[in-house]
Design a protein that fits this description.
Blueprint: H1 13-21, H2 24-32, H3 38-51, H4 57-72
Helix pairs in contact: 1-4, 3-4
């Protein structure tokens, strides 16, 4: 995937802590993405969001927070296109 096609929805710091930081399953998945090309990360994040059980607020917060981190790190531009 060369561009993240999904809307990034707002979330709170408490949701990030509850759904991402304190979730060992998500943390293991997140760590499995380390070192992968950005396109592959986007593919795996899309699968996590849509194909690993039903889409939920928890998964939305996890993925949106990760996508925002990719933007902050320069891997994605503000429109979600892969930069690196």
């Amino acid at each position: 995937m060369k561009r993240w096609p999904h809307e990034i929805k707002p979330y709170t710091p408490m949701e990030v802590y509850k759904y991402a930081v304190a979730n060992p399953v998500w943390q293991a998945f997140r760590k499995s993405l380390k070192g992968l090309p950005t396109e592959e990360k986007l593919d795996k994040l899309h699968d996590w969001l849509h194909n690993v059980g039903p889409t939920s607020r928890r998964k939305q917060v996890q993925v949106d927070n990760y996508i925002n981190a990719l933007k902050r790190g320069g891997q994605l531009n503000e429109e979600g296109h892969v930069q690196k």
